[in-house]
Amino acid sequence: MASMSKEEREDFLSKPHVGVLGVEESGRGPLTTPIWYSYQADKNELVILTGPTSRKAKLIELAGRFSLCVQQESLPYRYVMVEGAVAETRPADLEADERPMARRYLGDKMGDRYCEDTASVDSIRIAMQPERWYSSDYGKES
At the fourth CATH level, which superfamily is domain 6-92+123-136? Predict the structure, then answer.
């Protein structure tokens, strides 16, 4: 197995994989949960959306940082893991944040319907600028 180049890992992370978020939880193992995310390489910014009173939101606020692991589940296996401090937390905007995220994962029609169905649910946008990267591409020669 071999690590990915900066360009390879940024390209991989920019695709709509489901990530697994990890955040410290005092007195227990870390909370790990699947989540949608977006990543913009030009800003080095990874964004998640979640409910402001969710367990993950509260734990991220306490820890001030989180990790995200993204994998390809088919051959050749690959993964990218990033970790870093929270750069910004703010209320999510339907058109700037929620609709693009829903469309990223569900396509335009289903993404718009998802937004209609969840319009009454409050969300926050949590942005992280990755500080540490770990990656492997099992399709590369060592």
Answer: Electron Transport, Fmn-binding Protein; Chain A (2.30.110.10)
